Amino acid sequence: MERVFFRYVWMPPDNPAWPLSFKSKGVRAHVRKVLTKDNLVFTVGTKNKLTAPQHQGRVLGIFKLSDLEVSLQDYDLQRTHDNPAFDTVMQSPFALHPIAGWVPASPDNMFADLVGPLTPEHHLQAQSGVCELDEKTAKPLLALERRQLTIAVPNTPPLAKG
Predict the structure, then answer these.
(1) How many domains does the chain contain in total?
(2) What proportion of the chain, given as a percentage, has pLDDT over 90?
């Protein structure tokens, strides 16, 4: 069965979608161990001032993540919007590279309306890492229509000839 997780973020994914970042190498390593390539991670806008009001509490993105540990600094991330969260995200560059990414096709995607009430433990886990949802709670998220994103490719230095 496809397992479903959620995570709080400050901004929606760009297109191309860049990796999902975490505060530390330790959190990234833990998430890497918890997820498999068939799992889905729904990103939800925080109610923090770094999240634009129109994104707060909404499902912003859906990802399948690889186990490839990367740094956001390995990507050409261009600021296409004036968002102070971008600078904060770049200060925590520890990330997992996505296999696939989507955004909800409909603006009717308030997370709390879709999944109902959750425990404080759910919210705490989703602030730093990912939090798994049971099948019943995840069902409305899986039913969201989505639009696929392209995936950003990391910069790789040329191979040395020799």
Answers:
(1) 1
(2) 60
